[in-house]
What does this fold into?
Amino acid sequence: LGQTFQITSQEATKLSLAFSRPPLPSAEDCRKLSEDVQNAILAVATVYYWLPKGQGTTLRKMVRDATTEVVEGMIQLTDTILNSPVESLSQEQLISTGGVWEACEQVSNLPRDNQAAVSSALAACLGVVKDAVEEMEHALVEGQDPYGDIMEDEELGFRGNRDTYWSEADRQLLSSCMGLMKASKACLKKVLGAVKAYGKADSPEQIAQLDDLADIANEISPSVDELALSMYPPVNPLAVRLNAAKLASVLKKVLEIAKTSHVCPPSEEGWVQFLNDAVDHNMNKIKNFTQGQL
It folds into this structure.
């Protein structure tokens, strides 16, 4: 794959240089250039298709995304050349050529097996959830107006509208929601640590277990986002309860899949139980706070 990416990068350079200044390449040269570009791209796609699905769907998706970026980069470069005057090297052509180089260089950062791929996917999820938790913590600071960054606007109505503030009851409910969001962060952190420490990609079973973990962990971030959005005023307690229940269900599933997989030896079962209890504890408090709304 590294070899085909490198050849594609070189073909992009050749193509770009050929159309960087007059005179235009001859029809024969154009045909040869086109053929070389096409062969390079076909080689990239072929090597991607050689990667067996049994090596892991998470790994395969990352390799596919990198391959797609190279192909799309080359399409963009070709379009730019076709639509640019040949008097001089245009800024767009330079940017497009650099885009292909960048896409081709990515191959050195690709994971080499499914364990590395799943670690990378979990780390990305963790980063997004961390940001969401920090943003909500910042908004919930005592006395802070969550819409303080929105300027007064005639269409939005008077800024003193109570719908833009949290009541004391709202804050009690949201405190348990924050507990659930923090449990999401802790869950991803612990699962990532376990995958790095104990994850293996030596057998089909291990590879499949890692994929299952990545698939369910991918649901955490959207569920955290949905809960966070429903926490902004005016708060609808039932919508908050529904989104909290969705997130709790995803977290319980992640913990269950982790516990029954090879990444969770007996020494790791303590934190799985602890996080399960934390999810139940916060969800029970959310149910108590919203019981009167049912």
Notes: The mean pLDDT is 92. The chain is about 70% helix and 0% strand. Residues 237 and 290 are 6 Å apart (CA to CA). The two ends are 57 Å apart (CA to CA).
